[in-house]
Structure formats: C-alpha cells, structure tokens
Amino acid sequence: MTEIRRWQRYLLEGGTIVASILVAFGLDAAWDRLQERSIAADQIESISEELVAARPEVLNQAEQQRRISEATDHLLSILDAAQEGQVVAAPDTLWAAALTIPTIEVPTTAVVALLGSGGIRFVSDAELRDSLIVWPVRLDDGLANQRESWRFVVEELSPTLRRSGDVRRALDLVGAWSELPATRSVDLVRVRNGEELRNVLAERRMNASLVLRDYVEIAGHMEWLANAVRVEMGGPP
Predict the structure, then answer these.
(1) Other CB atoms within 10 Å distance of the CB of residue 156
(2) Per-residue pLDDT tens over the stretch 175-233
(3) Which residue among 17, 137, 153, 227 has the highest number of C-beta atoms inside a 10 angstrom radius?
(4) In terms of residue numbers, what domain contains 112?
(5) Beta partners for 192?
(6) Total structural domains within the chain
(7) Is residue 81 part of a domain?
(8) For 233, phi and psi rounded to 5 degrees?
C-alpha cells in the first residue's frame, strides 16, 4: 500500500510539473501573440500615415499630367494649321511642358513591413487584407505607363525636337515651366513642321493622358485604403 501511495504521489507531482510547464508555454505563446498584435497595430497605423502623406503629391502630379496633355494638344493644333516643312513658332513653355516628365514614388515601406512580419493576419477586414497584400504589385503595374512615358520623351520626343529646330530655351525650362509667373514674357521656339514631329507629339499627348488616368486611379485607391485602415483601427468609416 505504501508503494502504491508513493507512485500516486510521484504521478501527482509529475502531472503538476507538466501542467505548470504547459501553462508557462501557453502564457509565453499568449504574450508573444499579444506583442505581435501590438507590433501589427503600429504597422497598420503607419500604413495610414504613409498613404495620407503621399496622396496629395500624387494628385499634384496628376494635375501636371493634365497640363502636359493640354500643352501638347495646343502644340498639335499650331502644327496642324501650318504647312508641311514650314518653320513654326510656339511658346517656350508649351515645348517645355511636352518635354517634362513628372513622376511619383508612392512609398510602400509600411505595407512591406506588415507583410514581412506576418502581421497581415491580424487585419480583420478580408477585403482590406487582400488589398494590402497586392498593393505593392498593383502600384508597380499602375506606374508602367509612367516608365514608358519617361522612355518615350528621352528616346523619341527629345531627339525629334532637336532635329526639328533649336529647342534649347525649352530644355532650360523643363521642370520649371509650371511655376513661372503668368506675367513673364514669352519666348518663342521655332521648329520645322513635319509628320514625324506631329506623330511624336500626338503620342506624347496620349502618354500624358494615360499617366493622368493611372495617377487618378492610384490616388483613389490610396484614399480607399486609408479609409479602410482607419476603420480597421477603430475609427469612423
């Protein structure tokens, strides 16, 4: 009987030790999960801040693309009204606009951090979770026309303009034309009208229109993401 009691005591003590170990492991796991959730919450908040801070610049660059599209359209109307081979004069700011390549760089640091840490699993809204997962790729796809626009201006439009006339004044204004005061005196840039020049300007107008569309779509999705993240964090819809 004494031997049986001894083994019962051993089993009871052993069970208590095992239970204590399991409880300790459970507490550690719960603590780790709590910490992971806290880190994810900070990362989600950073996503909201990142989107809200970047969106105004996207809209600003969209406006630049609209003005570029209008400038190239104006240039085409001037060239279309002239004879083939005729030397045509147009304001330097219009040519500078056509040669300008506004670009955006939308930060994805916070989203990438959330995805890399695995914190995305703590996002309760399934639609938001899926949207955040694909956001870096979707953004890169949305900037494809921007990259093509850059290539086109550098490799096709600029060389064609240089062959058509002296466009140094327009080149000097690239990137600054939109900030010039309306009261400044306009310098005329003269180029020889030709089919090649009209074609590249038409394509430049198309490029600007496509990039404008992309920027507007990106800005709209950024707004949706920021609102969805705010709701996820407990804010108002």
Answers:
(1) 15
(2) 777 776 655 667 889 999 999 999 999 999 999 999 999 999 999 999 999 999 998 88
(3) 153
(4) 2-232
(5) 87
(6) 1
(7) yes
(8) -85, 0
| Predicted structure pTM score | 0.80
Tell me the three-class secondary structure of the chain, residue by residue: CHHHHHHHHHHHHHHHHHHHHHHHHHHHHHHHHHHHHHHHHHHHHHHHHHHHHHHHHHHHHHHHHHHHHHHHHHHHHHHHCCCCCCEEEEEHHHHHHHHCCCCCCCCCHHHHHHHHHCHHHHCCCHHHHHHHHHHHHHHHHHCHHHHHHHHHHHHHHHHHHHHHECCHHHHHHCCCHHHCCCCCCCCEEEEECCHHHHHHHHHHHHHHHHHHHHHHHHHHHHHHHHHHHHHHCCCCC
Contact 112, 191 (CB under 8 A): no
Using alpha carbons, select from 124, 106, 108, 107 the residue that is nearest to residue 41: 124
Buried-exposed string 116-154: b where 16+ CB fall within 10 A, e elsewhere: eeebbebbeeeebeebbeebeeebeebbebbeebeebbe
237 domain-assigned:
no
CB 188 within 8 A of CB 74: no
The whole-angstrom separation of Cα 212 and Cα 99 is 16
In a domain, 92, yes or no: yes
